[in-house]
Amino acid sequence: MRIVRVLAPNPGLFTLEGTNTWIVGSGPALVIDPGPHDTGHVEAIREEAGEVAAILLTHHHPDHAPAAATLSRLTGAAVFAFRPEADESRIREGHVIHGLQVVHTPGHTEDHLAFFDPSSGALFTGDAVLGRGTSVIDPPEGDMAAYSMSLRRMLGLRPASIHPGHGPIVASAEAKLREYIEHREQRERQVLEGLAEGPRTPEELVPLIYEAYPADLHRAAARSVLAHLIKLEREGRVVRLPTIDEDRFERTEASG
Question: How many C-beta atoms lie closer than 10 Å to residue 234's C-beta?
Fold first, then answer.
C-alpha cells in the first residue's frame, strides 16, 4: 500500500518536527490528520494525494484537525471522526474505511482513534504513540487507565510498523508498544516510590521522577503524573487528601 507523509510546518516542543499528515493509497487516497490551518500545507496534501476518498481524524486537537474542513471543501471528501463536529461523519471501533480498520484508542483523548491496515501491518497512531518520546496524558481529557488498555489493544493487532502523529516511522511496532507499556508501568512504580515518605502533589513528584528532563517539560510531566495518580486513586492504591487549592496524594495500605 502506498503511504506518504506530508509534514506540517508546525514544529515545537510537543509536535516534534511537526504534525504528520498521512496519505494512504491512491486513485483515490485516504488522508489521515490534515493538520493545522495552513494554506501551503493543504495545497501540499492536495498535490500529493490527488483524488481523495475520505479524510480521517485520529482526534480533534488543533495540530491535527483544523485543516480538515478546508481540505473537505476543496476535494469534496467527507471527514470522519469518533466524535464528529460540524459537517463531519461518525465512525466507530470495527468500521472499515477503504481498507483501514478503525480502532478506538482512548487515553490521550477520549475520542482518539488509530487506523490499521491488516494487509501491510501499518498502524496509524496519531498521538497515542509517537515516533520519538512519549505522549502526554493530560486529565481530565486524558485518562491513564484507558491509555494503558489502548496500548495493549494496539499491541494485540500485531502491527508491523507505526506511522505516528509526530516523529519518524517506527519499523519495530510491537517492540515500541511494549516499550510504551513498560514505560508507563515504570512511571507508576516511581510515583508510588515518590509517595513512600509522605503525601506529595504531582508538581512535587516531578523533580524526583523527571530529574534528567528539561525544565520546559516539567509542567506537562506533572499532568501525566496526575493522570497516574488518578488511576491509582481509582484502584484504591492512593488517596487524595482534602486540601483547598492543590492535588495532594498519599499511599494506602493497598499500594504495598
Answer: 12
User: Which ranges in the chain belong to alpha helices (H)?
Assistant: 39-49, 68-75, 144-155, 173-194, 202-209, 218-234
Burial 90-105 (b: 16+ CB within 10 A, else e): ebeeeeebeebbbbbb
Q: Cα dist. 20→34, 58, 108 in Å?
A: 8, 12, 17
Cis omega before residue 28 (within 30°)?
yes
12 has which bridge partners? 16
Pick the closest to residue 135 from 94, 100, 106 (CA basis). Answer: 106
From 12, 63, 16, select the one nearest 41 (Cα to Cα): 63
**Assessment of whether the complete model's pTM goes beyond 0.85:** yes
How far apart CA 87 and CA 220 sit, in angstroms, is: 32
Say how far apart CA 129 and CA 123 lie, in whole Å.
Answer: 10
Q: Are 38 and 15 in contact (CB under 8 A)?
A: no
What is the distance between the alpha carbons of residues 112 and 166, in angstroms, rounded to a whole number?
15
**Residue 104 to residue 111: CA distance in whole angstroms:** 8
- Note the pLDDT tens digit of each residue in 204-247: 999 999 887 777 888 889 999 999 999 999 999 999 998 766 78
Element (H, E) at 196: none
